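Discrete fold record:
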Amino acid sequence: MKALLLASALLLAVTSSFATEGMPGGESAVAASSKHRSLFVFKAKKKFVGATVEIYSSNGSMITSQHLQKRKMIINFSDARFDTYTIRIAKGNDTQEFHYVKK
């Protein structure tokens, strides 16, 4: 029970320290505060649940890929190299792209 409360408090602290940048159609990308610079958070439209999320480096090579199980996803770039990354969400003919610059 204590672990659940601690995890909930941590999640609340992390999500409340972000400034969201609204996008049309219910999508948003989040710029992390200086404390959480390595995190990229996005919230996609409901139609993208089950979509494939792919991360590409600046040279075009795919770093990783996984399925979007909920509308919101947090990607941790703390172990990634300094680069510009493209996060692509695709389901059917619909795609959405975000960019993340690791400095």
Residues 1-24 have pLDDT under 50 and may be disordered.
